[in-house]
Specification:
alpha/beta, globular, Immunoglobulin-like, Rossmann fold, 10 helices
């Protein structure tokens, strides 16, 4: 996914505020960060990169950020102490996410009881029938994988291939496969890529006892060829929308790894970030062979509320809809078939989700629209309060994800 800023945000908190400490397990006390997990009243206690003295402090709801006038829940004069400490009673706040504005120059997000955020599924009546029919069509397409060995990323432990195979609608999908050379059965990691992300090759020596598969859905990854925009393709109908085919490619990736002679189909896990986080949730929702997932900053959750919080990529979809005279009602009605919160109840495996509290691209509200509707009670989340969208740059998440998935790869 592209990294962008909220429209009108002057600076992200990673550069504007402290503390910088990483918070494990998604929990932090109110005086250590900006994520409040217990019932209020709440007090914000933090350090800020600002001069001591009086300062205006305004708190607005994230769901009003794209409105001409934001919904203000607090507007006070705060006192910044000589050591740049800010200590402000916030009172009682509803579950959700808020943007805090200090002196109208520093802006950052805080969160309140994210696991109580309500975003009810709104799947159309024919949701299941539509996807059952689509996946039935996919099942009729022969896989017929083609392999291209990549010698410079292979060694005596594992061999790397670029793989392509047929998917729904006659499109080609595939990815980069790194597979052990020795005979035997091996656990599998499926990695789903972000929106427009560049493909990469695994180190063949790094995980010699695993099969790893980096998925490229249609027209992305190894098939991108200069393309950089997919979100507004085929928005005329659910039948033609780009993600109908891309979602089939997500399932087809599971079909592919399960077809490998060396794959232990009882040990398949999936993870990914941003669009890849959405695909990770989807993989578990539509295929029970996925045993555990670790999505990060997931995309494609709660389209109507998404449009209330961020500008990109919503504006691209709106521009295309306007050009094709598609009403907002019809547009959002179509998108209900592709909203991950409507797939979430079908996810039954263990889940570990991470998010950045300052994410301006896939905002936390949309992450929890998926998470809070999951069909499994075996779930937990990790928050890095100072992080934006780039959770893949957080060593903490690398360690936490690896430790979580290892249990299902042994």
């Amino acid at each position: 996914m592209k990294r962008i800023l909220y429209l009108g945000i002057a600076a992200l908190v990673a550069f504007a505020c402290a503390p910088r400490q990483e918070i494990l397990t998604g929990r932090c006390e109110p005086d250590l960060g900006w994520l409040f997990l217990e019932k209020g009243p709440y007090t914000l206690h933090t350090h800020v990169d600002a001069a001591p003295g009086e300062a205006t402090l305004v708190l607005v709801t994230d769901l009003s950020l794209m409105e001409p006038k934001q919904d203000t829940v607090l507007n006070v004069i705060a006192q910044i102490a000589a050591d740049s400490t800010l200590n402000v009673p916030l009172g009682m706040l509803d579950p959700g996410f808020y943007q805090l504005r200090l002196r109208d120059s520093l802006r950052w997000n805080i969160g309140v009881r994210p696991d109580a955020v309500v975003s009810e599924p709104d799947a159309p009546k024919d949701f299941d029938a539509f996807w059952e029919a689509t996946f039935a069509e996919l099942a009729q397409v022969p896989l017929e994988p083609q392999y291209k060995m990549i010698p410079e990323h292979s060694n005596d432990l594992r061999t790397t291939y670029e793989v392509s195979y047929a998917s729904w609608g006659g499109a080609v999908s595939g990815g980069i496969l790194c597979i052990p050379n020795a005979p035997g059965k091996y656990p599998v990691q499926i990695m789903y890529m972000g929106y427009g992300a560049e493909p990469y090759y695994m180190d063949p020596s790094a995980s010699p006892e695993q099969i790893q598969f980096l998925v490229s859905v249609r027209d992305q990854g190894i098939f991108k060829a200069g393309q950089d925009r997919w979100i507004d393709r085929g928005i005329e109908s659910k039948e033609t929308f780009y993600y109908r085919g891309a979602f089939c490619d997500v399932k087809r990736a599971v079909d592919f790894v399960a077809s490998l002679e060396k794959a232990d189909t009882e040990r398949i896990v999936a993870w990914g970030e941003s669009q890849g986080g959405a695909f990770t949730f989807l993989s578990a929702a539509v295929d029970g062979r996925i045993k555990a997932i670790a999505p990060s900053v997931p995309f494609l959750g709660d389209y109507p509320d998404y449009a209330r919080i961020v500008w990109w990529p919503v504006h691209e979809v709106f521009e295309e809809a306007d050009a094709k005279a598609i009403s907002r009602e019809d547009l959002f009605g179509m998108l209900r078939y592709f909203d991950l919160k409507n797939f979430a109840p079908k996810v039954k495996c263990p889940v570990y989700m991470s998010f950045g509290l300052q994410d301006p691209t896939c905002p936390p509200h949309t992450n929890f629209a998926i998470y809070n509707n999951l069909g499994t009670a075996d779930k937990r989340f990790l928050c890095v309060p100072t992080c934006g969208h780039a959770m893949w740059q957080e060593p903490l998440w690398d360690r936490e994800r690896a430790a979580f998935l290892e249990k299902y790869l042994q």
